[in-house]
Specification:
Layout lengths: L1 E6 L10 E11 L5 E5 L14 E4 L4 E4 L7 H4 L3 E5 H4 L7 E4 L7 E7 L5 H5 L4 E5 H5 L16 E4 L6 E3 L5
Parallel strand pairs: 6-8
Antiparallel strand pairs: 1-2, 1-5, 2-3, 3-4, 6-9, 7-8, 7-10, 10-11
Length: 170
């Protein structure tokens, strides 16, 4: 059982912009996609009902109902700095590095599209401090790198699209 956020538009001024609902997972595809059934009736969304089929990816999961210590929400709740190019403009992460965290909630990850100018980076309005999960919901292509130690840095190869480790500075 996993919890997803379903965004929707409504003419009802009392309606929120999204509902959080549980989905019963029936199948996990070879490509990492999930298929399941809605586990409850939405309060506001009119075109969904309990047991309707739902297809989604791991990046859409905001919580799980497991008795384990590896809850996805807890794993990706720590924060990171990310540029708006990745968070809001639809660009994929192109460069990421991990430094010593600034505080307990900080993962130490810093993520950019790798096309930002110095001027862009100097303007604090172009950067956000959000959970890793928020960034992964936009681009999860680097999820396999997140357990890398402090001092790690990666750049996306423009030809292959894969991340390449950069030598440690020192």
């Amino acid at each position: 059982v996993v919890k997803l956020i379903f965004q929707f538009e409504s003419d009802d001024p009392e309606a929120p912009g999204a509902e959080r609902m549980w989905v019963l997972v029936d199948e996990i595809g070879q490509d990492g996609t999930f298929k399941g059934r809605l586990d409850n009736d939405p309060k506001y969304i009119q075109d969904l009902k309990a047991l309707d089929p739902i297809s989604f990816s791991a990046c859409h999961i905001i919580n799980t109902e497991h008795d384990d210590d590896d809850n996805l929400v807890e794993r990706y709740i720590k924060r990171c700095f990310v540029t708006n190019r990745v968070l809001n403009d639809g660009m994929r992460a192109g460069y990421l590095y991990r430094e010593d965290p600034d505080e307990e909630e900080d993962s130490g990850w810093r993520i950019t599209a790798n096309d930002e100018s110095d001027e862009y980076m100097d303007d604090s309005k172009n950067c956000a401090y959000v959970s890793l999960g928020a960034v992964l919901s936009k681009d999860d292509s680097f999820i396999h790198l997140l357990d890398s130690p402090i001092g790690s840095a990666f750049i996306r190869d423009s030809e292959t699209g894969e991340f390449v480790a950069l030598p440690a500075e020192g």
